[in-house]
Specification:
433 residues, alpha+beta, Phosphatase 2c, domain 1, 2 domains, 5-stranded antiparallel sheet
């Protein structure tokens, strides 16, 4: 007998790409707004008659400083300067706003509020120390005009500046606390996500272990192959095979839905059917599976479509279909016959019928889940296109491999499972590989 193997189940977690601003690019983006507002303020002060310019050189020096800080942020973005020097940028923003304020009327300047951007930038960084840095920066902004006018502020201006510093300090504390809480929530969320992903990975390993081993334990008259490509880490599809007293039994099922819940029901149905190895009637095995997953709880119905067959050494196929409808028999001459049944899925129906079909040498029984139909663009023609693939692909291994490759090459909305068994009685007397 030639080597019989199975295409192992493959699990691939599909993720969508989310565009994010790189960490090194963040300072440039933040400073862009500050530099733009400072430059725009200076231009408006020069061109608008109701705005004043009290010290043009200092005002334009503030603009130059803001633009220079933007250039420094670009060096960080390009990797020429380490990100740890980021705080120099909002620090220069405090100085630039202070110079703009002095150059546009000191206490009468309408542009002082630009400093809030630098405060939020500084205070939003983790650590209480950044609140102190934000307050020092605010103090520099407020006192910058007096660097150019040593006469000092009047008493009323001192009170106003003290009140402004208190307001900015309160803002810094609030922003820092909000940032700290957001960081804690993010850390907790990431920890939970890692825990859930770990559970999913372990569930996927358990589910994979429930799939059948290679087909070397089956009689030499049969070549059996299968593959399962879940849409998520854990899927609701399953397939199985095992030897019987007079041949083999094969099963393919598809639980409604996806994820861990569907995977648990799939494992239960698969286990009950496999425990019915001594039951020659496939319909009786489905009835056992139905009883095994039946629950008296008042929950939404979870149904399972399932195809179960037993193939004898004489090629006689006894099969039962619980609402699945996606099994075909490919004759050795290329003809494709659908194995049709009107029975309902497990979880909805209560009675199933066993049908009998005769397989000849070289005939292949193929069963797939409905996720295979999603691989085709035209939903109305999906079944016909699947049958065309079976018709023009003579080998069971090639059919399984072709479908598995297509499923693994693109994003899928549903699990994709395929199983194929070829009846080859001429190999009975040949030694096992």
């Amino acid at each position: 007998m030639s080597d019989q193997s199975t295409t192992g189940p493959r699990s691939r977690v599909l993720t969508r790409a989310i565009e994010r601003v790189p960490a090194k690019r963040v300072p440039f983006v933040k400073q862009s707004f500050i530099a733009l507002l400072i430059a725009l303020s200076a231009v408006l002060s020069v061109t608008t008659p109701w705005l004043m310019v009290t010290d043009a050189p200092v005002m334009w020096a503030g603009v130059v400083l803001a633009v220079a800080a933007l250039g420094f942020a670009e060096l960080i973005a390009r990797g020429h300067v380490s990100l740890r020097w980021e705080l120099l940028i909002p620090g220069s923003g405090f100085v630039a706003v202070g110079m703009l304020r002095h150059g546009t009327g000191d206490s009468r300047s309408v542009f002082l509020n630009i400093v809030i951007l630098a405060i939020v930038w500084m205070a939003s960084r983790p650590g209480r120390g950044h609140v102190v840095f934000a307050m020092i920066g605010s103090l520099v902004t407020l006192l910058m005009p007096f660097l150019f006018d040593p006469s000092g502020p009047p008493s009323s201006e001192v009170v106003r500046l003290a009140l402004s510093l208190m307001v900015y300090g309160t803002l810094a504390v609030a922003v820092n606390e909000l940032a700290r809480q957001a960081e804690l929530r993010l850390t907790l969320s990431q920890a939970r996500r890692r825990a859930v992903q770990g559970e999913l990975d372990r569930a996927a390993v358990v589910q994979q272990s429930l799939l059948p081993p290679d087909a070397s334990t089956l009689p030499a008259s049969f070549s059996v192959y299968g593959a399962c490509v879940p849409a998520r880490t854990v899927g609701g599809d399953f397939f199985d095979w095992y030897p019987t007293d007079d041949g083999i039994a094969i099963t393919l099922g598809d639980v409604m839905g996806k994820g861990v819940g569907a995977g648990m029901i799939a494992a239960a149905v698969r286990s009950v059917i496999r425990s019915s190895a001594d039951e020659p009637d496939p319909a009786a095995a489905l009835r056992r599976a139905s009883a095994g997953v039946e629950t008296g709880a008042d929950i939404e119905t979870q149904f399972t479509t399932c195809f179960h067959a037993r193939i004898g050494m004489d090629g006689v196929i006894h099969w039962a279909d619980a609402g699945h409808g996606l099994a075909v028999l490919r004759r050795a001459d290329g003809r494709v016959e659908r194995l049709r049944s009107l029975n309902l899925p497990i979880g909805i129906g209560s009675e199933w019928t066993t049908f009998t079909t005769q397989a000849q040498a070289g005939d292949t029984l193929i069963c797939v889940s409905d996720g295979v139909l999603d691989l085709y663009d035209d939903e109305l023609e999906a079944v016909n296109r699947f049958e065309d693939l079976v018709r023009r692909t003579p080998g069971a291994a090639e059919i399984v491999q072709s479908i598995a490759n297509t499923a693994g090459a693109e994003e899928r909305p549903d699990d994709v499972t395929v199983m194929a068994a070829t009846f080859e009685p001429a190999r009975t007397s040949q030694p096992r590989a």
